[in-house]
Amino acid sequence: MKTLVWVEHDNASVKDATLSVVTAAAQLGEVHLLVAGSGCAAVAEAAKGIAGVGKVHLADDAAYANALAENVAPLIAGLMADHDAFLAPATTTGKNIAPRVAALLDVAQISDILSVEGPKTFTRPIYAGNAIATVESTDAKLVITVRGTAFAKADATGGAGSVEAVAAGADSGLSSFVGSEIAKSERPELTSAKVIVSGGRALKDADTFQATIFPLADKLGAAVGASRAAVDAGYVPNDYQVGQTGKIVAPEVYVAVGISGAIQHLAGMKDSKTIIAINKDEDAPIFQVADLGLVADLFNAVPELTGKL
Amino acid sequence: MKALVCVKRVIDYNVKPRVKSDGTGVDLANVKMSMNPFDEIAVEEAIRLKEKGVVTEIVAVSVGPAKAQETLRTALAMGADRAVLVQVDDGVDVEPLAVAKIIKGVVGEEAPGLIITGKQAIDDDSNQVGQMLAALLGRPQGTFANEVTVEGDSVVVKREIDGGLETVKLALPAVVTTDLRLNEPRYASLPNIMKAKSKPLATKSPADYGVDIAPRLKTLKVAEPAVRSAGIKVADVDALVAKVKELGIA
């Protein structure tokens, strides 16, 4: 089987999310990559070095600069004449593009796979991760998004792929990119961090959140996450949200501070290796999944913990 | 401009789903069902656009069993003007691709300027219908919308993306899928719930739109996720510090 993997990048470097998808694709067959962007030749050069990669298709055109689905999906659908499966990471970019590709090919899409069970059989979470479905595709071609935390990352080096330019299609003219507001952070990226410290509604306000959670995160070299309640209350921007509708994470250690543990939050973090919960309510559902729990007032416990580490 | 909103009847988000012991699916018998939370946000956004004078009529559509009428009545009570139920037999799950094809048929009849759907349904967690619909219609998509502004013959959508926010401008007609922070949906008041009972609700079938709803994916098995082994509670911060140091992260 020939697979085509969407390379997630910022027109300068390959993003980590791509590496997990390569691992999933390699379980299906020959791995080809697609680098679509503008002025992104360096990305293709880096991508061909990923272990296990064969051909890298490079579509370098202004129309692809911001990965607009209206422009990128027809390009991918065209390349699928020569591939059996399209795989993208289940990031906001992948989730935006892949279903559009699937509909153009008239095939079902399989979202957020956790494992490859056979050439056309996969597992995926449903009902906020409260059930795991094993599904088999009956379509001729596969379109799949991959949960990054469920697959090991392929080696970013050691591969010997070759780059081949792909002719760009026309700009659809249906959509245009206006601008973006990307949150700047010195901390590790949430979805690839080894340690995450997350705060919930109990943190009271943005200043208290900063003053309580950030020092602990700094001490642990951790990324900072948040529950929906904390985001809705404006303590942190929404790209900090961990959960069914936010980011799905599976770090080595997840520290949940002042988070009750609603179904929707657990959906985003319950595959973490070790879960530590600090909450003053000893009946909070978070303690049912926590490996280590401390029943205490976080305003005393967290600064004390930060101080003693 | 007419707005079409797509709503789905799903298990209530507060209910913890139970997997059937025979592994065929999730037990939905006698479980509380509600409108998918993202779809409530879609309905609310359409109503707000109507209140601003941008939208003139709101049509709510659902693909589902007869009971999905209740979900459509909820949309009508919130402020939608009319509803269309594309009815399927009880217990039949229609996959996102087939739903998108059916809604394409409804779009053909209604010719809305804006189509608003939730970004994902909390039961199958697919996050596909809006994108597929846009593809089938050959129209642009504004997924994971955080802010929607109609400007003349285009719509400006601020989208929630992994690193922050992104703004795109789409030519109308367009498909927009809602993210959590787009708005806070209103509650239907009792008088509006009563009024909604007399609003028009048409019932159709997938065959009316020439759509085959046979599944493309075979569900071989549905299982409980791995259960985490019980953890321990530590007495104080010192004990926690010791454990954290054992983990080797500090």
TrEMBL record, chain A:
It comes from the Bacteria. Its cofactor is FAD. Residues 3-181 form the Electron transfer flavoprotein alpha/beta-subunit N-terminal domain. CDD domains: ETF_alpha (cd01715). Keywords: Electron transport, FAD, Flavoprotein, Transport. Binds 1 FAD per dimer. PANTHER family: ELECTRON TRANSFER FLAVOPROTEIN ALPHA, ELECTRON TRANSFER FLAVOPROTEIN SUBUNIT ALPHA, MITOCHONDRIAL. The electron transfer flavoprotein serves as a specific electron acceptor for other dehydrogenases. It transfers the electrons to the main respiratory chain via ETF-ubiquinone oxidoreductase (ETF dehydrogenase). This is Electron transfer flavoprotein subunit alpha. The lineage of its organism: Bacteria, Pseudomonadati, Pseudomonadota, Alphaproteobacteria, Sphingomonadales.
Automatic annotation (TrEMBL), chain B:
Gene3D superfamilies: HUPs (3.40.50.620). PROSITE patterns: ETF_BETA (PS01065). Keywords: Electron transport, Transport. One of its GO terms (biological process) is carboxylic acid catabolic process. Pfam families: ETF. PANTHER family: ELECTRON TRANSFER FLAVOPROTEIN BETA-SUBUNIT, ELECTRON TRANSFER FLAVOPROTEIN SUBUNIT BETA. The electron transfer flavoprotein serves as a specific electron acceptor for other dehydrogenases. It transfers the electrons to the main respiratory chain via ETF-ubiquinone oxidoreductase (ETF dehydrogenase). Heterodimer of an alpha and a beta subunit. Belongs to the ETF beta-subunit/FixA family. This is Electron transfer flavoprotein subunit beta. The lineage of its organism: Bacteria, Pseudomonadati, Pseudomonadota, Alphaproteobacteria, Sphingomonadales.
